[in-house]
Amino acid sequence: MAKDHPAEGLTLMIILSSAFNLDTENPTVYSGANGSYFGYAVEFYMTNSSFSILVGAPKANTNQPNITEGGSVYYCPWGLGQSHCNTIEFDNQGNRMGIINDTYVQMEMKSHQWFGATVRSHGNTILACAPLYNWRTMNDVAHSDVTGSCYLSVDNVTKFVEYAPCRSGILLSDLWSGRVVLGGPGSFFWQGQLFSASKDEIVKAYYPDYFRLPVTGQIQTKQAQANYDDSYLGIFFLFYPSQAHGGDVPFVTLAPAVPLLMLPFSPLLPGSSPSWDDLLVSAPMFMVRGSGSRLEEMGRVYVYLQRRPLELEHSQSHLTGSQAYGRFGSSIAPLGDLNQDGFNDVAISSPFGGENQQGLVFIYNGHSGGLKDTPSQVLVGQWASSTLPASFGSAIRGNKDVDMNGYPDLLVGAFGVDKAVLYRARPIVKTSASLTVSPTMINPEEKSCVLTNGNETILVSCVNLSFCLSASGRHLPDELDFVAEVQLDRQKQKQKGAVRRALFLDTQQPTMRQDLRLLPGARVCHETKFYLRDEKDFRDKLSAIYIGLNFSLNPHTAADAHGLRPIINYQTADLIEQKVFLHPSVDCLLFVPCSDRREVYLGDDNALTLTFSARNEGEGGAYEAELYVVLPPEADYSGIARNNESLTQLTCSYETENQTRYLSCDLGNPMKAGMSLWAGLRFTVPRLKDTRRMVQFDFQIRSKNENNSQSDVVPYKLDVIVQADVILQGVSRPDKVFFPPPHWKATKRWQMEKDIGPSVQHVYELVNNGPSRISHTVLELRCPKMIQGHLLLYPLEVMTQGSVNCSTNSTINPRQLKVRASYQALQHELCSEMCLNVFFLNTPVFSIQRTYKNYVLECSAQFRVLKMPYAIAPRDVPSGARHVVTSLVWSKPDSQYPVPLWIIILAILAGLLLLALLIYVLYKLDFFKRSLPYGTAMEKAQLKPQAASDA
User: Fold this and answer.
1) Which domain holds residue 760?
2) Residues 701, 614: contact at Cβ < 8 Å?
3) Count of H helices and E strands in the chain?
4) Per the domain annotation, does 143 fall within a domain?
5) Which of 64, 139, 609, 756 is the most exposed place for a label (fewest CB within 10 A)?
């Protein structure tokens, strides 16, 4: 039965969307004359609110008199078939004549001019150019120049005017909202040039009898310096609308010899409000080093996203061709939103690709980060040429809905076989599907359903099954027909002689096919039952029964109003599986990992310990249980964690299988019911690359049990981080300077360092403590050179170590004084292995006329890391500052004037004279007469002992 059914039980739902929708089975093919290069240029053309096809054939013969292979443009109305392509008569004249120096000569050469090599349209206007058109200059009868010429059709190909401003090089052209833009890469010695003029002014200035027609309001680029010769500016360009310019439209132009240029031609598109468009740049001959280190030409396309006005961001590394010499990227065309997912898609051609060089066109779908890495569809050229490659994809145009079915189409040229092919986009079906089974565990002892087999009825164990399908999309047919198929016990289908253990109750078959008809936007469900066969009919009692649902659009489903059948994406996972168990689970293995870190750093060995909890919550033992760990390519196994006594010690083996490295650790045989353990494994992650932002270990517990024999795969992810710890150190030698120095004599004739004053050396050391590397760092050093109008420092020398470039706003050692040789040795002494830059500021110090004063000389250094050599942006950009101080002490100086010898002698004589005068005065005062200590002779006699009387 078909009805909406809110199914109960276990449900799995997936969302599907289509992208593979260019109709390659029924393309519209337009053909031209053999050898005409029909398809060299292709373009969409809109008339009366409907699109047609324009095809350039630059080697076609026309009705122009006496012109060989002048080239032509064909008009192919949509819906009338390939036989209805007609030539547009842009120019029906032959080579025109003119008078030069009173001589009647042929002025132009239209044979082999390649008219139709470029064709562009806008509204009812067509622009077609002949890049090899020759014109004879007005001053030289004998010579002609390849100048190129273009014709413009207006009013629905009823009027044609010539526009040939470039008389100095090959022309490439474009047309945008009433303006013509021409590129002349041969101008100014192949510097290249761009011209632009409005359609109305070109028509107004045209007069068929004149060769040179000045156009009012024409703008053009000018000649540059001689070093821009051979730049080929304008060999490719496009309009680049941007909201940043309001009504102005800049150009993006490529000059192969110089970087990408953006030329704002202003104003070109007044009154517009364009969006922020992105940019693709191709290099069809890009070389890639392949096997054996040989360079192979593969081609490459770069994607730039405009995040802000006119600021292009390189969104992804690149898209590279898959075949050598295929010229991947020769043509690029925007497709619009081909798969209706909200992002624009792109077609990229490889005109020499394919097994037989028949040509390929790749369809890449867009997403928020740019373009997806792999194409969703590859268009293959169906023709071969015996004379030259078919060049399928040499010209491609898209983003136009020719059949008006709501999806953009693609136009591809193959001039090597003179064909142009239109691929229309098929409607896309977005599908949601679900499969439900209930219950998910069959007990053979519980029989609840009646099975009728002939005249016999028996009770069986059965399961309810239902599936639902819904579809939606834009411009779909009124009805959609799907085919759904359900298979029971799918794994037994692949086993020879195996018996399907489950059958559908109503058909007693293991497979059911059901046709479903849906209305767009509706949901249809179907429900049924299947039963378990008698246990004696099969041997496998343990493994689960897998039920699979796959579905597809019926190949005979109705087409839309434009004759196109809808399609589901070829990448759609249109198979849904569920499983039903026969018995209660014997074991239930659970796993919980954790780690001492959640990040790893580029440049580090990244030692880490991953601990985990394994537990069997089932009713039975898990036999031969083991932990299975898949190592990422960046990691190495170090051993068992033994630093914690609570951790279980494991036995692990390290294996490699099909370039997959894994660990197998024994958890027990059996791992008993209810058993739980903690264990740890040690790893290092030394081989990180900046192409991956995450490292992932995959853990799983496995056993030999038939039922629930393994746990879910548990990923453990570590973020890859770029981080560097950069420090700046600085020191002053000496840290204190005394002025003036001993025996120093001021002089203005400086010849050596010591003639100036005492030396100060500032040493700066920039150290990266890692773990990540730095590649571009700026260190700025600032020191005061003057103080109070007086010269303080004389910069003598800057010495560095490593890849260091220095610049200064002051001249170092302007008088070329002799410098001591000891500084070089000091440099090697101070710089360690981690030292990035060492700066020596060797600076003598001057007196500043401030005697007996102290001054502190302070120099400041700041560093900024501008770039780190990784695609991953750093978490923090290292920067810092350091101040180095030197104390300047002015000592009291000795006398500045020495005492003459004669003054010293005179001082001695004066001292001697003064001494003599003092002696004379003392003499006159009887200072030198000595008195007896005992008086007169009588006094002496009285003091004698009286010897007689005593006797």
Assistant:
1) 724-890
2) yes
3) 7, 65
4) no
5) 139
